[in-house]
């Protein structure tokens, strides 16, 4: 398509279409009169746009409200945005499992699937688990693959804009994997690949502990933690997608590696052995001295990692998720220590989304992409 100018009638039609579609999506089966009032467009313009949206399958005429049909004369026509006109997927690809969420175009989750996977599984095995989980979910939901409008994916590692994992040490064969390209072959629709902590912070802002905050940090706590950040409501990825990789701070000359921090025996723990980590915390709660010392080391390390982000970004809120979110006694020490180090200590909260946080954020990324397709016009965004 050629370059559009301000006087190009096709650009004007697209802007009008986006404005009306926003009003339909956010309204409660509005009438034409309602749409004219909300959009400020003329009635003939609104009528033409609505008819075009009906032909495209995005809008349908809604039944008359109860009571309207009893009134004398023909009731006003009402219309609604067809949230069922397409579907979205949010996928988490992690060390121990693959999780998938299915939603309509409004983001309402209509199905889910989880598949366990070994931490030693190859990239091919892991991708096959993704395909199997998706196929099973779509079959159970009765949704054809052609109905998918976009797929969001959250996974460990530094992810480039095209979906290539530039560095991914948590999963075998992940570094250098063109994950976006590989998945697009299976879905034949846009696939958005993002770092798992980045997806998680998007989820908490959408449906979790950060719903009322536009400046927040999500910490995916573990032996090698990662973090995602929103600044003024926008995801901060950094120049090359490596923002928030606080797990690399141990390279600055600390005495203990992340694997040694929670060790009670002198032998390093495996970074992905969540069971062993949980056992150390359980022993600490029971009064085991070595375990207690290990947990204190972990909290101190985590505080230093989080403080580095807080001092740089000054977020309103820090949300802690990952396996640490299920361990008692983490929040109070974290708050106390951050108060010592930070000029303006942030609020600290546990994730409200638990294990679903990464897949939920991936779903939101897919939804954002579809909304940009439906509502954005050559850099012009329709008013909300």
What features would you describe in this structure?
The chain is of the alpha/beta class and 384 residues long. It folds into 3 domains: 73 residues, Winged helix-like DNA-binding domain superfamily/Winged helix DNA-binding domain (Arc Repressor Mutant, subunit A); 132 residues, 2-Layer Sandwich (Nucleotidyltransferase, domain 5); 142 residues, 2-Layer Sandwich (Nucleotidyltransferase, domain 5). It contains 11 helices and 16 strands. The strands form 5 sheets. Strands 5-4-3-6-9 form a 5-stranded mixed beta sheet. A hairpin with a 5-residue loop joins β7 and β8. The longest helix has 25 residues. It is elongated, with a radius of gyration of 24 Å. It starts with 8 loop residues before the first helix and ends with a strand. The N terminus and C terminus are likely disordered.
Q: How would you briefly describe this protein structure?
A:
The protein is of the alpha/beta class and 384 residues long.
CATH architecture of the largest domain: 2-Layer Sandwich
Estimated radius of gyration: 24 Å
The main β sheet shows up as: 5 strands, mixed
Per the principal axes of the C-alpha atoms, what is the gross shape? elongated
Averaged pLDDT, please? 86
CATH superfamily annotation of the largest domain: ATPase, nucleotide binding domain
Helix-strand sequence: HHHEEEEEHEEEHEHEEEHHHEHEHEE
Counted by DSSP, the helix tally is: 11
- Which fold name is given in CATH as the topology of the largest domain? Nucleotidyltransferase, domain 5
What is the tally of beta strands?
Answer: 16
Read across the widest sheet, the strand sequence of neighbours is 5-4-3-6-9
How many structurally independent domains? 3
What is the CATH C level class of the largest domain, in words? Alpha Beta
Structural class: alpha/beta
Fraction in helix? 25-40%
Which regions have little confidence, pLDDT < 50, spanning 5+ residues?
Answer: 1-7, 378-384
What is the first-to-last residue Cα distance?
A: 26 Å
Question: DSSP strand (E) fraction?
Answer: 15-25%
